[in-house]
Amino acid sequence: MNNEEKRYLSAASGFFTAFVAFTVLVKNVDVKPIGALFSKVGFASLNKWFLKTAGRSDFWYDVSQLLGYLALAVCVCFVCIGFYQLISSKKGLKGVSRGIWATAFIYILVLVTYLFFEKVMVVNYRPIIGENSLLEPSYPSSHTMLALCVYLAAADQVGKLLDNRAASTILAWLCWLAAIATVVSRLLSGVHWLTDIIGAMLVSASYICAYLAAAGGKR
């Protein structure tokens, strides 16, 4: 492991520690029943203020949904790339590039994190009623986490998979724009608390740093 990879792992550890600490604070600081069906939410004053200021927007919700579906399509593309490398190489599993394995690794981390906070430890619920008039877990924002991890990992991978420098640069910038647009649209849609987004950004930063260490750093 070189120094760059060690720095990424150190950053991943730092961001994850910050995420855990922030989660504990969300569970215990200024907890009030301000959510849908009087569900309790941490940092209630901050979250209530931001939701009132940002409001709710169907337009931005639709944008965030579209970007979420696009992120899933990107996942499928990289799964296909990995499968192609596997069947086209005589080396078996060793024929799959380190970057693709790292990409699979971050996808698994996102899935495990989603299931943990959806099924094992619910921190808080969305500010709106979900389908079938049921409360839906919302911390951390799985939509934000998926988009950040998928798009930013893809931004790194296109530079390693494509020989065309101009094309890879354009695609990498598009990935970054999609990641930023997802965060902004999710914030403005009104379907999450501000702390849901912050938590998702912290854990995503941790996973991206871990990905970069596993993938061998940036290009």
Explain what you see.
With 219 residues, the protein is an all-alpha fold. It has one domain. 72% of the residues lie in helices and 0% in strands. It has 7 helices and no strands. Helix 1 packs antiparallel against helix 7, helix 3 packs across helix 4 (98-120) and helix 5 (142-161) runs parallel beside helix 7. It is globular. The two termini are 16 Å apart. The model has no long low-confidence stretch (mean pLDDT 90).
Uncertain spans: none
> For the report, how would you describe the main beta sheet?
none
Number of strands: 0
Mean pLDDT: 90
Distance between the termini: 16 Å
The fraction of residues in strands falls at under 5%
Shape: globular
Radius of gyration: 19 Å
Task: Tell me the helix content.
Answer: over 70%
Order of helices and strands: HHHHHHH
> Structural class from helices and strands?
mainly alpha
Q: Please count the helical segments.
A: 7
- How many structural domains? 1
